[in-house]
């Protein structure tokens, strides 16, 4: 039950991020963009004072629940929250700060070592570079197929 609460909390934070962003962005320019371009997987965070650890997030991914950012060449972006994708854009403001825009709203994230960290309203989301996991429905379908006895 505790794991489920943490997963739901992280998902709620990610969804709130989509809704709460404010501003605009343009295509990335210069060498700074290379610092951010690629796939970022939500690895941990704090939502409403409850911490979701890397272990919790790994367990969530095993269940097909994932949150990730795709920062593509040319400035396009995709935010995926539990299988729901939002298209947006991004721009590198400098070597350690990126501005993300979804649905006409934006927020900044900063590089802290190997993590892309976004803080908003006391909540913290930490992303690490990684491979985008399969969508939840594919994971669920594979588990169901493995559970069915062969005839």
Automatic annotation (TrEMBL):
Domain of life: Bacteria
Location of region: Disordered: 132-151
Signal peptide extent: 1-22
Entry keywords, A to Z: Signal
Annotated protein name in UniProt: Lipocalin-like domain-containing protein
């Amino acid at each position: 039950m505790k794991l489920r609460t943490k997963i739901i909390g992280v998902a709620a934070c990610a969804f709130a991020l989509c809704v709460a962003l404010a501003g605009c962005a343009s295509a990335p320019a210069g060498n700074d963009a290379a610092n951010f371009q690629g796939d970022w997987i939500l690895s941990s965070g704090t939502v409403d004072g409850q911490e979701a650890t890397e272990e919790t997030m790994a367990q969530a991914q095993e269940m097909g629940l994932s949150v990730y950012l795709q920062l593509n060449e040319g400035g396009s972006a995709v935010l995926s929250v539990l299988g729901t994708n939002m298209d947006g854009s991004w721009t590198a403001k400098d070597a350690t700060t990126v501005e993300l825009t979804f649905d006409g709203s934006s927020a900044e994230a900063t590089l802290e070592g190997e993590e892309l960290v976004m803080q908003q309203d006391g909540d913290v989301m930490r992303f690490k570079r990684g491979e985008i996991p399969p969508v939840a429905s594919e994971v669920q379908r594979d588990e169901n197929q493995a559970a069915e006895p062969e005839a």
